[in-house]
Amino acid sequence: MFAVARAKGLRTAAFFSKGKFNHLEVPGSLDYTQAPEGDGRWSAKRTVGDVERYLAKERPNLLFVHLGEPDYAGHLFGWMSWFYGRAVRQADDGVGRLLAAADRAYGKGGYTVILTADHGGHGRTHGSAMREDVTIPWIAWGEGVRVSTEVGSAVRTMDTAGTALWLLGVDAPEGWAGTAVKEAFVTGQSLAAAE
Question: Which domains does the chain have, with CATH numbers?
Answer without folding.
Answer: 2-153 (3.40.720.10)
